[in-house]
Write a structure and sequence with these properties.
0% of the residues lie in helices and 36% in strands. The chain is mainly β.
Amino acid sequence: GVDIGGSTSSVGFETTDIGASHGGRGEANAKPPYGSFLQPTDLGSKANCRGGGAVRIVCDALTLADAASRIKANGCTQKQWGSGSGGSIWLTTRTLAGEGSVQANGGDYQGLYGQVGGGGRAAVYVSEDVSGWSGTVEVRSGTRGELLGGVGTMLLAFPDDGDGAHLSVVNAHTATETLE
């Protein structure tokens, strides 16, 4: 898979002892989300460690072969203070196939006194065929036993299969809302 690390300097809104924000707010962070959900290109924000990177892929055919295949722009996981926010992933392809995932998740927290990062932003545009893809797109907040940050944004633009357009918000691998 591809794992793109993000900023180690101030990008977006830098924090230290609270979870960083991007597409969703970091835990205990009052600063607003930033960046485009249509064409996400911003790096995730740094907290006590890096935010997620920014990935832009334009291709004719994209195959994420198996469940271990991932395109990731996740925030860092922290053991003290605040975790980084998820970054940006913007994919444009004619066909998408395989079982792999796209992740712009906020950083988790593994200690007692610190906060998780907010989710990033992902936009996936497929112009012709997505029937061979069974993977996931994740923009969840970081976790510390439970989800405490804000979910990021996800835009899935797939060819109309006669069933209309779909928008899903994913947090902790569970679709929390589907609009049709």
